[in-house]
């Protein structure tokens, strides 16, 4: 069905006049007449009775008017939805991140500026974050480490030191030691994240560069569980400084003889970068970049 013809019918039916319908639609009266005639001829029926006072609806015309009112009400609703989304008065921004520590303050600032936009947040490891971004399950990602991909815009956002931490009963804590050499870890029971962890990969590369054969005695997939294991005295852990909560149960040390750091990237698919909601999130996030 031609919607221009249906719209002309709808306005004529509501106004009861071809002249008034033409004025409303900002087209000529012959154009309105042509739309109505085309609709009637296509379906081989009469929608109006013509008389000297104007037009009145036939029975089928009455039924069609009810349907056309619903159709154009839905059109208005769709237009309002799209306009609201363009102005960020609605819609959803889907985000994936490797940890909540830095993304949550950005989300808080974004929601303060755009309170009617719904936020969906997924927390996962780097592989999951990358997969969700490339599959367009999320609009924006913030993750540690990134391998160049021509489909993705990657903005370096934060740099973090990799630090060592142990429980408060450890001799390093008891003596107030604040830094160690990398080789000192070869005598410790090490607790690491899973092999996909970017922090672990950075640490392992540093060990290889110094020909140190340091291996974990325990692997834990969750950073929260790793923290609890170290706090309980099960071993010594490594972590990006920003992921380490303030807790009196653990003692933090810097690694003196190597410069270990991780980089957090803000990621967006290039083809989606100009979406209004993505641009708005980037504008807010820029205030947090350092």
UniProtKB/TrEMBL annotation:
Question: GO molecular-function annotation terms?
Answer: DNA-binding transcription factor activity; transcription cis-regulatory region binding
Q: Out of the domains of life, which is the source? A: Bacteria
Entry keywords, A to Z: DNA-binding, Transcription, Transcription regulation
User: Looking at the keywords, is DNA-binding present?
Assistant: yes
Q: Where is the HTH lysR-type domain?
A: 1-58
Say if the entry is tagged with keyword DNA-binding. yes
Q: Which family does it belong to?
A: Belongs to the LysR transcriptional regulatory family.
Q: What is this protein called?
A: HTH lysR-type domain-containing protein
Q: Which organism is it from?
A: Kiloniella spongiae
